[in-house]
Amino acid sequence: MNRTPDYARYKTLSITRRGPDDTVLDIQMRALNGKLPTAGHDGHWELCEIWRDVSNDDSVRCAVLRGEGLGFSGGGDLELVQDMATDFEVRTRVWKEARDLVYNVINCDKPIISAMHGPAVGAGLVAGLLADISIAAKTAKIVDGHTRLGVAAGDHAAIIWPLLCGMAKAKYYLMLCEPVSGAEAERIGLVSLAVDDDQLLAKAYEVADRLASGSQTAIRWTKYSLNNWLRQAGPSFDTSLALEFMGFGGPDVREGVASLRERRPPKF
How many C-beta neighbours within 10 Å does residue 46 have? Predict the structure, then answer.
């Protein structure tokens, strides 16, 4: 049975087909503000949900995730963050979406490639680093901004950073909210590849086409097996996410949001 999801329902993602026999799904996070893709109420849900559709689409063999405009992703929309800090119903809904985003990427049976340029922050970065093949422009700026906002580094941090770059580096970058360039991210093992900026998309499509042309059972079962390392880290991830969202009900996040709006250092 051929199952083709309705991709037209996505408003914050531009979805097209390319590659061998149109089997590569090209997913572009839209820069609705004209600068960077940001995850608002709709965008956060869509970035979580799309991987279920990719997994269920029998005509897709591989997916490429990229950003529109000046960067890969600009983090959470401040209106969404504000609503999470003040509305329990919003906070519990977004907590579920954040949990599902991580597990949906891990459990998607199709290989996912990310092509990261410019800033890579927030929910987009979750999918970017959890992608099976992560490719960054050498000048990309990867930042996990949670502690700057005043909440614990939840999302994908605890489940993937220590495995990719080691515990010492993970603690340094996550606790200090320190930016990582694409070139440095490749050096420490945080991403699969770093390439010159003008070669980013070409390289991502090249890798996608190779995966789409390969043995699908072999590739998908290899992904499934390797991702058992991440499934074993599920309890650590669940704890980090719970602590992050507990922080959204505390005082520090209010100062974090205020400092971002006023473009000043936070005073915790």
Answer: 22
